[in-house]
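New to this. Explain these tokens.
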Amino acid sequence: MNKQIRATEVMVIGSDGTQLGVMTVQDGISKAEESGHDLVEVAPTSRPPVCRVMDYGKHKYEQSRKDRAVKSHQKGGHLKEVKFRLFTGEHDLDFKVKHAQDFLQERNKVKVTLMFRGREMPYREKGWAIMTKIQEKLQEVGQPEYPPKLEGRNMVMIMAPKSTKE
């Protein structure tokens, strides 16, 4: 037999933070309704359980705003992608590597993709050379998390920002 035991008396705290004392649950609910608020249990494990008189909808809204603010202040963790082709010119390669450096300095991971099209697959060695060149240019701000690997017609490498502890 699994009975749920409910407390008959609770410690009630007012909406302004003052203690209203220990009272029955029904008295606490009536006090909360008098002030136009809700009775919310905030510490169920204490003896007696603690309840607070508050506007529960407003409380949930403020809590979601705090959570959103904390989430927006977190930096990094995003995966940015920079794509190259096998016969990308030297200037274009440097330009895209500069973008990858900016992403790494912003604490984002960078996925470097080298795409092979049509009859370019026999030139894989040139692809490895390009990936090595890109990795060397990014070594100041990043380190390879996932080394260059051929995945179908694409060669992929993931660079992570260098740790700030160094």
Q: What stands out?
A: The CA atoms of residues 10 and 48 lie 5 Å apart. The first helix runs from residue 25 to 34. Residues 1-5 have pLDDT under 50 and may be disordered. The chain has two domains: 9-72, 79-161.
